[in-house]
Structure formats: structure tokens, C-alpha cells
């Protein structure tokens, strides 16, 4: 049978046209015409023989490496460590991840315990091979790779035929695959909001208020009584609705794991609602301030900065400028996941003084803005890079205000004279591998 797929995560149908599946269920994909949502027939599981839509990023072809429970393609070293160190994982629990940005290189990360190792997680890297040839080579300079001299046709062979029976290279036999964290965000709320994203206001149930943002109040909400979302209620008059809709059209086509997804809008009456992905821990700024290093380590901080950088790199690829990158506009979810929010909205925002307020009552975010933005109102990907530098300062200082003790006006004068922010005291000058 052609087009057989396996569900990687549980999915509870959100509309009557959706399929409900459990991780491991087999499906036959019948139609891939809709972006992000495929029409399929369940072959096994509670929906066996039923037909409906499933999120395309929740399934993988049967027998592909993506379908393996131990394969964690977009996982960085620090994230791998966090997941492996989660409660309940015993020695030998492992995962295979892509190594850095190079799609042809893999690394094996596994849980270890004393006396076998003083490090709680071992990384066995440079398992090189492309998707086509998948010939593994090993790099003898890497930690504990010396013992591995055999070559394997596929990563699966290495894992299942070799490491499950021989502790070669890795000091113990591989045990169970590491548990996967939550499913990735779906492409829009459902198969039909991808094209039709003006949704009825009454499909949203407004929950508790999360806070006050640049453009109005933000609430937790439920769409169709099932999907948890964040709802931004725009302050009436804060922007021209037609400008907002135009900008939202652009934002809607942006899909990246490290960008908050815009799901839908309600623009037929005021207040205009913007419905987005919900993030459990709220803004990065508050998250950093609350933690102050109690549970976040330097490697967590670097990892968070890396996530923002990857979202911003995608924005650049899409020729899109954020204009207001700052810790207050990055949101945090489970396991220190960071996503960039509010991209593009600064452009359409207006208030009486024609200046953009970073927080209610506070004017232009001077300390995050590049000189050319301050002086000539010029914004580009380069000014976003400047703001990213300020964001790094916020991350490393656990949310301190940039340029401490310096007033906005004085700051501009100093910058024009060539002054740049010094390295904060707790920021190491050496480069640390992440
Ligand atoms: O730090 P917070 O709780 O996180 O307070 C701010 C407030 O709303 C105004 O921006 C929170 N917030 C904004 N967007 C979201 C979202 N998508 N998920 C969860 N919280 C959000 C933010």
C-alpha cells in the first residue's frame, strides 16, 4: 500500500472533519493538497477506517528515520541533555539528533550514571552520512568514539543492530528511546483556518487575562472549546484595521518553530482580536526576572538566545523585519522553549504621538533601537541584529534594563560618540560550546 504513514504524536480532532489518532497509529495519506494538513484514512487505532484531516507535521512515512521513536531531528545538545535528565529515565536512555545545522551529521546522546561516567549525559557525535548514502563515518577525536570502527549502512542499523547488542563506543547498551516532548505546533488551528482565517468571534472562549501588551490586553482562550490559544484584544484605535489585516496576511505565511504562530483574526468588529499560539510561561523578560539564575544556567541562557537567533534567521530569509525584538516580545513555553512574538506589528501601530510605546506609558523603545532607527527611522535586518545584541544583554543579566543608569537622551549622545555597552559582569569572555 502506498503513502503509509505513522503518527508521531497523539492528535485530538479539533473539527468534525479531523481524525483523532494516537502516536504509533498507521495511516494512509490520500491527499496532500492543503498546506500543513493532509487528508488520510486511519489504518489502525481508535479511528481505524475513518477518514479525515491530520496535521502533516504529526506523521512520518512508515520505515523512515523520522518515524523512529529515538530520532529527534531538530534537537540541540542542551535540549537533549534536559530531556534525558528528566525523571524516570534510566542509564542507557538515548536519542539520535541532527548535529548542528548540518543535515548529514548525527549525534547520539544518552543517559549515563556513575561510576560509568561522571557526566550524566554522554554525547557521541559525528555520525556522518547523508539521507541517500547514510554511510556512517566516525571522528576519532570525539569523546569515546575511538572504540567504534565498524561502518553501518544506516543510522537504524547502528542503533538497532549494533548498539542494542554491543556497548561499542557508548559505554552501555542503548536502552529505551527518550520520551518526546509535546507535539509541534500545527500549521494554523485547523485545515480550514489556513485559507479562511477570519473566524467567528463566538468560536473563542475568553479565559483569564495574561497581561497588557503593546497593542492591548492579552487573554488565554479556547478555540472551538478544544485548542488553547492566546487572544490579543487590540486597543480600539491603536492601529488602522486595514493596515493590521494587511500585515497579518504577511505574518500568516510565516511558519517556524521559533516564531509564535498567528492562527486567526476577528476583524469584523472592534476590538479586533488576534489569535495566536499560547505559551505557558509568558514573556521571556518576566521569566528571566523571576528566575534570576535559580534554575537557569549559562547553557540554558545560551540555548534560549540560540532559539531566538534561529527564529530571526528565518524572518530574514523571508525578507521580514521584526522592528521590536526584545525580551518582552519573546515568549517561553515548556522546557525553556523560546519563540519570537509580535513581529511586524510595530510597523502598523499608531498612537497620538506617532511613537511606538514599548509598554503602556513608556515611549519608543530607545534602548533596543539601532542608531539609524533612532535618527532616521530606518529599520532593516541590521537594526534587528542590533536589537538582538540588546536582547543578549537582557538574557545574560536576567532581565536587567540595558544601559543601566543612563537616560535615553544621554544614551543616544553617548552612542553617537562611539560608546558601546560593556560586557556585563556575569558574562564570560570565553566562548563556551553549546
Ligand atoms: O509575561 P506575560 O505573562 O506574557 O505578560 C505578557 C502579556 O501577555 C502581554 O504581552 C502575555 N502573552 C502575550 N502573548 C502570549 C502568548 N502567546 N502566550 C502566553 N502569554 C502571552 C505576556
In words, what does this structure look like?
Belongs to the protein kinase superfamily. Tyr protein kinase family. It is found in: Endomembrane system. This is Tyrosine-protein kinase. It catalyses: L-tyrosyl-[protein] + ATP = O-phospho-L-tyrosyl-[protein] + ADP + H(+). The chain contains 9 helices and 16 strands. It has 434 residues and is an alpha+beta fold. The chain has 4 domains: 59 residues, SH3 type barrels; 87 residues, SHC Adaptor Protein (2-Layer Sandwich), CATH 3.30.505.10; 81 residues, Phosphorylase Kinase, domain 1; 133 residues, Orthogonal Bundle (Transferase(Phosphotransferase), domain 1). The longest helix has 20 residues. About 8% of the residues have low confidence.
Summarize the structure.
The protein has helices at 77-84, 155-163, 241-252, 284-291, 298-317, 345-348, 371-376, 381-396, 408-416; strands spanning 4-7, 26-34, 37-42, 51-55, 59-61, 71-72, 94-98, 105-111, 121-128, 204-212, 216-223, 227-234, 262-266, 273-277, 330-332, 338-340.
Amino acid at each position: 500500500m502506498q503513502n503509509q504513514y505513522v503518527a508521531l504524536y497523539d492528535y485530538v480532532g479539533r473539527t468534525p472533519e479531523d481524525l483523532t489518532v494516537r502516536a504509533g497509529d498507521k495511516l494512509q495519506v490520500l491527499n496532500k493538497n492543503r498546506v500543513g494538513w493532509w487528508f488520510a484514512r486511519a489504518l489502525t487505532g481508535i479511528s481505524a477506517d475513518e477518514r479525515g484531516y491530520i496535521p502533516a507535521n504529526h506523521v512520518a512515512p512508515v520505515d523512515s528515520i523520522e518515524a523512529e521513536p529515538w530520532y529527534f531531528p531538530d534537537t540541540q545538545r542542551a535540549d537533549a541533555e534536559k530531556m534525558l535528565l528528566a525523571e524516570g529515565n534510566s542509564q542507557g536512555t538515548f536519542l539520535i539528533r541532527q548535529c548542528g545545522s548540518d543535515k548529514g551529521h548525527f549525534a547520539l546522546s544518552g543517559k549515563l550514571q556513575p561510576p560509568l561516567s561522571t557526566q550524566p549525559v554522554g554525547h557521541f557525535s559525528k555520525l556522518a552520512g547523508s539521507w541517500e548514502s547514510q554511510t556512517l563515518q566516525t571522528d576519532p577525536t570525539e569523546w569515546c568514539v575511538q572504540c567504534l570502527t565498524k561502518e553501518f549502512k544506516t543510522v537504524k542499523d547502528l542503533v538497532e543492530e549494533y548498539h542494542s547488542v554491543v556497548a561499542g563506543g557508548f559505554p552501555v547498551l542503548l536502552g529505551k528511546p527518550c520520551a518526546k516532548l509535546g507535539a509541534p505546533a500545527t500549521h494554523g488551528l485547523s485545515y480550514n483556518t489556513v485559507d479562511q482565517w477570519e473566524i467567528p468571534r463566538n468560536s473563542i472562549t475568553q479565559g483569564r487575562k495574561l497581561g497588557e501588551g503593546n497593542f492591548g490586553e492579552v487573554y488565554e482562550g479556547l478555540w472551538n472549546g478544544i485548542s488553547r490559544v492566546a487572544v490579543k484584544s487590540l486597543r480600539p484605535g491603536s492601529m488602522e484595521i486595514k493596515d493590521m489585516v494587511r500585515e497579518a496576511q504577511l505574518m500568516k505565511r510565516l511558519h517556524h518553530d521559533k516564531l509564535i504562530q498567528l492562527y486567526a483574526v476577528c476583524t469584523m468588529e472592534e476590538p479586533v482580536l488576534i489569535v495566536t499560539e499560547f505559551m505557558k510561561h509568558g514573556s521571556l523578560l518576566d521569566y528571566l526576572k523571576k528566575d534570576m539564575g535559580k534554575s537557569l544556567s549559562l547553557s540554558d541562557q545560551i540555548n534560549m538566545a540560540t532559539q531566538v537567533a534561529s527564529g530571526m534567521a528565518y524572518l530574514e530569509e523571508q525578507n521580514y523585519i521584526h522592528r521590536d525584538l526584545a525580551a518582552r516580545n519573546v515568549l517561553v513555553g515548556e522546557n525553556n522553549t523560546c519563540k519570537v512574538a509580535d513581529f511586524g506589528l510595530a510597523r502598523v501601530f499608531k498612537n497620538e504621538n506617532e511613537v511606538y510605546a514599548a509598554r503602556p506609558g513608556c515611549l519608543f523603545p530607545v534602548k533596543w533601537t539601532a542608531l539609524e532607527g533612532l535618527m532616521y527611522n530606518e529599520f532593516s535586518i541590521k537594526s534587528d541584529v542590533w536589537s538582538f545584541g540588546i536582547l543578549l544583554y537582557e538574557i545574560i543579566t536576567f532581565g536587567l534594563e540595558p544601559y543601566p543608569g543612563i537616560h535615553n537622551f544621554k544614551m543616544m549622545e553617548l552612542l553617537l560618540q562611539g560608546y558601546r555597552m560593556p560586557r556585563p559582569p556575569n558574562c564570560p569572555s570565553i566562548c563556551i560550546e553549546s
